Amino acid sequence: MSLHNDLTPNTLRSAFGRFPSGIAALCAVIDGKPQGIVASSFTVGVSLEPPLVMFAVQNTSRTWPVVRQAGRIGVSVLGTEHDGVCRQIASKNGDRFAGLSLHRTDQDALFLNDAALWLDCSVHQEFPAGDHQVVLLEVHGLTTHDGAHEPLVFHDSAFRRLEQPVFV
Fold it and tell me: Rounded to an integer, what distance in angstroms lies between the CA atom of residue 168 and that of residue 164?
C-alpha cells in the first residue's frame, strides 16, 4: 500500500475521522446566558502538574471568543445519551440549550448532566496552529460521577458507543 499526496480538507477530514475521539462540550454562563462549543479534538492528560487538558478550535469560530471570556469553563465529556445534544449545542440557530439538563457552578461554569466526566477549567494558554487555535485549559476540579455514564465516541463522522467488556 502506498501513501498519496491528496491533502485537501475533505480528504484530511475523512482521514482524521479514522481516529476515534471523545466529544466535549465547553460551556459557561456569559452575561446571564448559556454559551458553549463542542470539540472532538479534546485531549486529557496534557500535564499533571499543573493539571492541563487541551482542545483545538477553528479560527473562524464565533462562539469561542465569547466562551473564552469566562473565568471558569465547564467541560462535559459527553455521555452516550448526548448524541443529539452535541448537534444542538453546535447549531448556529435557535436556543442551543433549550431543554437540556444543566448544572451551573457559583463561578458560572456550566455542565451537562449525564456526562461521563466534568472538568472545571480556566484558560491557561492559547497557541496559533494553522487554521485553528490550540487551547490549554487548567483543571480546578472534576467529577467522574463514579463511572455512572459511558462516554460517547466520534468515529468516521458518526457517534458511537463503546462495546461493553466481556469478563471471563
Answer: 13
Determine the residue type at 21: S
The predicted-structure confidence for 139-155, as pLDDT tens digits, reads as follows 999 999 888 888 888 76
Angle at 132 between CA 95 and CA 88, to 5 degrees: 20
Asked if 53 and 44 count as a contact pair (C-beta separation under 8 A), the reply is yes
3-state SS record for the chain: CCCCCCCCHHHHHHHHCCCCEECEEEEEEECCEEEEEEECCCEEEEEECCEEEEEEEECCCCCHHHHCCCCCEEEEECEHHHHHHHHHHHCCCCCCCCCCCEEECCCCEEEECCCCEEEEEEEEEEEEECCEEEEEEEEEEEECHHHCCCEEEEECCEEEECCCCCCC
At which residue does the C-alpha cell 449545542 appear?
Answer: 89
pLDDT at 15 (0 to 100): 82
Grid coordinates given for 78: 459527553
pLDDT on residue 17: 78
Q: Are 115 and 76 in contact (CB under 8 A)?
A: yes
Weakly modelled stretches of the chain, pLDDT under 50: none
